[in-house]
Amino acid sequence: MHIVIIGAGQVGSFLARNLSTEHDIVIIEKDHETAERLKESHDALVVEGDGDSPVALEEAGLAEADVLLAVSGDDKTNILASTLAASMGVRKIILRVRDHDYRKYPEIIKNADVSVVNPGDIISEKIAGLISSPFSWKTETLALGKIKLFKLKIEESAPITGQRLADLGPAKSWIFVAVSRNGKITIPTGETRLKEGDYVFALGVPEVLHKLKQLFGVVEETVRTAVIMGCGRLGRGAARTLMKEGIKVKLIDSNSEKARQAAEELEKVLVFKGDATDSDALKEAGVDSADYFLALTGDDEENVLSALLAKNLGAKRTTVIYTKPDYIDLLETIGVDRAISVRLALANEILSLLHIGGVAHIALVEEGRAEVLEFNITNETRLSGVSLNDAHFPEGAIIGIALRGEEVIIPRGDYVPRPGDRVIVFSLPEAVKKVESILGQ
């Protein structure tokens, strides 16, 4: 496919790199230095210019494009480019819009071929998922909400520590699909023994969480209070989400204007002006007694430092957002409880909306070290009617769960996919192409 991407920031460049292995990518980027760097680092045609410029769009071949990803940091540029693309007949348009005010004017984005993604909404959903399952390091909603992916840490005192997976008995409503040890992800077998410090990825129905809590020896406390560092769009959006869950929220920001705006918008939220790394300011906001502290500013370093300080002051749990991919391993070792990658969350949403190659849903895991893919089985699917024993499914991938109507199936060797089934696959990058050739369209 011919895909045009407007904006080569964290999200745009990440998508370009992941999509360029199988598709023709053209990137439009207005910053000269960034454009020159992309020409060296990405397998893509780079057009230097404004994303809403007819000249740049023509040079990028927009009229012949199958997909437009308008993901620059400027809402107006993205909207205008999407409007032009729709008028040219581009079949699939995904539009990134950060400002919620545009929702007041639906006629601006009224084309049925345009899918709108809002970073604030996506991050708020991720935060809500972590709040609802506090002992999970990450959550991902799959199969239209019927299945969840949990990332869980093996602590020294966990009952599951040292056990073989085969000793846990046959899986019925959940399954461990991967183990991350020292930053390396592998697909486990029945002989795999879980060690202290391992992270495991579990697929299962949402109701299975209480069973996993027993295995991990977790005793959770109800989240009643939260302090959010950052009064920007993400902070305000998260505050609204937590308030709907009945959580008492306080906000803090060093920027007077942002703090004022948050106080005006959120009448039931106490807003404080203070520095993220000032212990007195954090104490004034009640961090020392908070059940949750969330650092949601646009500065990775500030988020990490404020979370560590909040933890030291007494906050029970901390969550940070980050944009730099190298932070993922660091955050898991220095004491930050939870971390959400802004670019990965947004990229996953966009990739899922593309529906490329018969994939119904895709989620990149751990900055692309693994992928979760969903496929709808049809009469044309190679694996339809073939048992897994005879499928020659690649190493480095596992069909974790299959859905047949309302029935949840943990596939074993005798599982035979039928048309109408929906299968969820956990795959390492080197196995993805073979998985798609077996299960894709």
Provide the descriptors you would attach to this structure in a database record:
alpha/beta; Rossmann fold; 3 domains; globular
Structural write-up:
30% of the residues lie in helices and 27% in strands. It has 441 residues and is of the alpha/beta class. It has 3 domains: 2-117, Rossmann fold (3-Layer(aba) Sandwich), CATH 3.40.50; 225-345, Rossmann fold, CATH 3.40.50; 353-439, Alpha-Beta Plaits (2-Layer Sandwich). It has a 6-stranded parallel β-sheet, sandwiched between helices. α1 (10-19) links the parallel β1 (2-6) and β2 (24-29). α1 packs across α12 (342-354), α5 (119-132) packs across α7 (233-244) and α5 (119-132) packs across α12 (342-354). The relative contact order is 0.10.
